[in-house]
Design brief:
CATH superfamily of the domain at 1-89 and 169-178 and 199-284: P-loop containing nucleotide triphosphate hydrolases
Low-confidence stretches: 276-284
Oligomer: single chain
Organism: Agromyces rhizosphaerae
Strand order of the largest sheet: 6-7-8-3-9-10
Region (Disordered): 262-284
Bound molecules: adenosine-5'-triphosphate
Protein name: ABC transporter ATP-binding protein
CATH topology of the domain at 1-89 and 169-178 and 199-284: Rossmann fold
Number of helices: 10
Number of strands: 10
Structural class: alpha/beta
CATH class of the domain at 1-89 and 169-178 and 199-284: Alpha Beta
GO molecular function, one term: ATP hydrolysis activity
Keywords: ATP-binding, Nucleotide-binding, Transport
Distance between the termini: 41 Å
Mean pLDDT: 87
């Protein structure tokens, strides 16, 4: 099957600060594919470049070189204006459900805004708002309320409904459940899976938590210092990790049993030395 999203040799460098500062290479040649209707999980420790990759796909990070091809079309170097039509194809759900929704708009206004911006008439937009609320299992009277009247999990449902409003084919989910408690996390993940089964949307699902990523992803890519060091199905990556960094990531995941935790600590210690890290600084 052809890729919906194809990333090749992507390099992203952020400008350095100060007069003689070197640029910082956050992505050092990343390649990946996402097929229509697929979830690709992107896991890695803080600072490994996950958000930068998501932002590059969304046109929000500076692409130094490489290709980002969506549905056969190169989108990595488009101007802001040329990207605008893509908003209905590629959407995003951010981590923080408290700051990602405009606090002064009602839920109906938040959900109708992207529709009306694309010329959908007010009456039709209002009907679609009802459908969207139903799709994310929120009551229809939610439409009249403000974001502050909802819990974190409910707000994330509103953010998901907004992302789905234009029937996108790809949603970048950047740590969408990290700010939620465990049981709410599970319900929001189940919702994302259900939405995918119903609509065929693809996800680039970013998280530092392998357990969360495994729950939702068909395949998992592991990032380390701006590179993808391993890709496989969730079972393969967690049961038979190939790269030492993936092994360390697994060992760092919290477990309930203190003895198992101590064994993991010892294993982690001996692995630490064996990881040879590629340099991400740009040579001048
Ligand atoms: N706008 C920016 N300017 C300069 N450096 C940046 C910028 N954004 C990110 N970085 C740096 O790029 C690297 C990758 O950051 P990124 O946010 O992509 O990592 P991440 O894996 O998503 O981390 P986290 O899980 O903490 O969000 C980090 O070292 C970060 O400090």
């Amino acid at each position: 099957m052809t890729s919906l999203l194809k990333v090749r040799d992507l390099i992203v460098e952020y400008p350095g600060r100060g007069l003689r500062a070197r640029p910082f290479r956050a992505l050092a040649g990343v390649s990946l594919d996402i097929r229509p209707g697929e979830s690709l999980g992107l896991v890695g420790e803080s600072g490994s470049g996950k958000t930068t990759l998501g932002r590059a796909v969304l046109g929000l990070a500076p692409v130094t070189s490489g290709e980002i091809v969506f549905d056969g079309r190169e989108i990595g170097h488009l101007s802001h204006r040329a990207r605008r039509p893509l908003a209905s194809e590629i959407q995003v759900v951010f981590q923080d459900p408290y700051s990602s929704l405009n606090p002064s708009l009602t839920v109906a206004q938040i959900l109708a805004e992207p529709l009306m911006a694309r010329g959908v008439a007010a009456k039709e937009a209002s009907r679609r708002v009802g459908d969207l609320l139903e799709r994310v299992a929120l009551p229809s009277d939610a439409a009249r309320r403000l974001p502050r009247e909802f819990s974190g999990g409910q707000r994330q449902r509103i953010a998901i409904a907004r992302a789905l409003a234009l029937d996108p084919r790809l949603v970048v989910c950047d740590e969408p459940v990290s700010a939620l408690d465990l049981s709410t996390q599970a319900r929001v993940l189940d919702l994302l899976v259900e939405v995918q089964e119903r609509t065929g949307v693809a996800y680039l699902f970013i998280s530092h938590d392998l357990a969360v990523v495994r729950h939702i992803s068909h395949r998992v890519s592991v990032m380390y210092r701006g590179e993808i060091v391993e890709t496989g199905d969730g079972e393969q990556v967690t049961a038979r990790p190939v790269h030492p960094y993936t092994q360390r990531l697994l060992l760092a995941a919290p477990v309930a049993d203190p003895r198992a935790q101590a064994e993991r600590r010892a294993a982690r210690h001996s692995l630490r030395e064996s990881i040879t890290a590629p340099s991400t600084a740009v040579m001048s």
